[in-house]
Input
Amino acid sequence: MSNRERSDTGEFVEAVSHSRVLDVFHSVSGPVVTSTDVAEDLDCSTETARRKLGELYRDGVLDRRKSGRTVVWWVVNDYDVGPKPVDPDDPLFADRPSFASGREDLAESVDDVLYRSES
Output
């Protein structure tokens, strides 16, 4: 039986995320990493590291080159590994906020709402 953590739905929780793999590029010396670098830094198997690096390669985040028997990986120059900018035209921002009280604007009573002061 596996000791891996499972979600509420019974699926395995992803232990090695793409962002954690990209963080390895900041923790090793040099502009490239190997699957062994990722595996050692994230305490995972080299197969998991290769799979995650391959996913990032397919997504256009990384590039790779084989040197002898080793594949080296690097972040594509024009890819920004930082947070993505907020798109103000995203439909998420189109709706007005709703509140449990039913009021549409709480700006004047924000302290009452936050600190539950009685008016």
